[in-house]
Amino acid sequence: MSRTASALALALVLVAALASGVAAAEPTFGKATVSATFLDGIKLEQRVSLPSGVHRVEAYVREGSDAHTFLADVANPGTGDHLLTYTFETPAGSIYPNTHVQLGFRVTFDDGHVVDGPPETVLYEDDRFAWATLQGDLVRVHWYQGDEAFGRRALAIGEKAVKDASDLLGVTETEPIDYFIYADTKPFYDVLGPALRENVGGIALPEIRTLFANIPPSAESESWVGIVIPHELTHLVFGTATNNPFHDPPHWLNEGLAVYLSEGYSTSARRNVERTARAGEIMPLRALVGQFPTTADRFGLAYDESVSAIDYLIRTHGQEALVTLIRSYAGGVSDDAAFSAALGVDVAGFEAGWLADLGISEPVPFGPRPAPPGPLPPDWAAAPAQTANPGASGLPAPTFRATTPGAGDVSGPVTIAVLALLAVLLAVGLLVVARRLSQGEPLLAPAVPTVPTAVDDDDADRDAAAAGGEDDRPQ
Description:
By secondary structure, the chain is of the alpha+beta class. The protein is built from twelve helices and 14 strands. Helix 1 runs antiparallel to helix 11, helix 5 packs across helix 7 and helix 8 packs antiparallel against helix 9. The C terminus is likely disordered.
């Protein structure tokens, strides 16, 4: 093979190696450090070495077992070694204590591929108090005011509540349940945040297997303590029995079961439902599928109606049908499918039966109702003319922002130059091959011994000059 062909082959190898090196450049992440301050934020720091071609840098956050990923932009520092810093703010109600939070940094390149740095996990805790802890078979009770007897009573109530609900629903609880008792209202509402209602005394979070309740030590012997603890822990067992990624059961079914197991269908609740039914002010169950009303009277009525519906279900269809109904939600089925399979009637049919049991017909909806027409201004003969196309949503049209590489980024031009050089070398190689073939020369020289020939001095000089010129050409 001629020296030209050899040089061409070597150049192609070098270009391929260079192109491979450019494509393979990835960020290098150091050890991350995380620190959390309750009601303030979670700070992440990590050293990283960034190559060229980085388009965007972000922090990623995942809470608990939630598969969702929160992304936040971080200033792109450019090529080189840097300390990346990000603070995930945690004001009241944004994230609950006892939640494991995973944080890390994400690097997106100009060509679209993404590299996530190794995550760091921290347990977000309410560190304002020195918590005492007692652990049973499944329940761990945490409290900061009151003696050990207070904690032991709460633990005994909690253990029994979990066992009763588990036995009823036929589920086996294996993971611990943390139960935090706040003696003071303000710290308790700091946990819940401003979005929750002020009449809430406890909350159960199946996704992190945690219960929060506001119980002062002075109420240790009061009867309502023996109600609120089983009520909230029943929600956790209900969550285990119905867990699925598609569809939550109606809220009235969840709350109705919790009331039924913690206190039953009490005389006061029964009277409230019957009195409301006679007054024609009962709320249909379809109005209690999501959040309950906010006013105190309707809020309490929602709980009473929920346990009334559970009582009717058990009296009419039996306890096994209730268990079948609840367990069916684990399959992610719709409400109508769950009710039809377990009870033989859809949701509307069950509600009609419950209302008939109360001796009333289906309530008439209060609204929404059209507003009465108002007076027109003196110079107006009709309603204002339509200002939007029929069927238009009235929403502004979306706008799109073009994505451009970061300032100072030279990876794009470098890649283009490499590809251009590769194309030129390939073209030159093809031209050389075609020329040799057209002249009848073989691509590979035959292996024959070299016969020395006599040359005069002028010919030797010309050959030396020709050889020197070839060696001086850029390769």
